[in-house]
Amino acid sequence: MWKMITFFARFYTPFRFVEFLRRTKGKIHFVPRLLAIYYCLRDTDTPKAVKLVLMGALGYVILPFDIVPDIFPAVGWLDDAAVIAAALKFAGAYIKPEHLEKVRHVIPFAKCDW
Fold first, then answer.
1. Highest taxon of the source (predicted)?
2. I want to staple 8 with a disulfide (CB 3.0 to 4.6 A). Which of 15, 32, 56, 86 is the partner?
């Protein structure tokens, strides 16, 4: 499992993440969750093992060709949503209220009640 996480973590960079958000332009409903993961990843209090899992999750989402390629409308994002949900469950204790505040600052009407 760690081998797969580190494989996908290689595809994550802050620049690629921002470009991914720019390309999707709100086409996916879990952008607030992605931002929460991003802010948790940037937090110095987050343990390195958790950061690796979060980087792996973001790398998986950024990569256009994964288990179900994102070129298939709707269905292509289901596996990405599942990976994000698993990453949030894994790192839930490390996602702080200030991370969610930053998400609300970027997306004012974002629901952060997961």
1. Bacteria
2. 56
**Which residues does 21 contact at the CB level (< 8 Å), separation at least 6?**
31, 34
Residue 110 DSSP label: -
| Cα distances (Å, whole numbers) of residue 38 to 50, 69, 102, 103 | 12, 22, 10, 10
The rounded radius of gyration (Å) of the Cα atoms in the chain is 13
The string of pLDDT tens digits covering residues 86-112 is: 999 999 999 999 999 999 998 887 777
pTM for this prediction: 0.80
Residue 17: is it exposed, middle or buried by C-beta count within 10 angstroms (0-12/13-18/19+)? Answer: buried
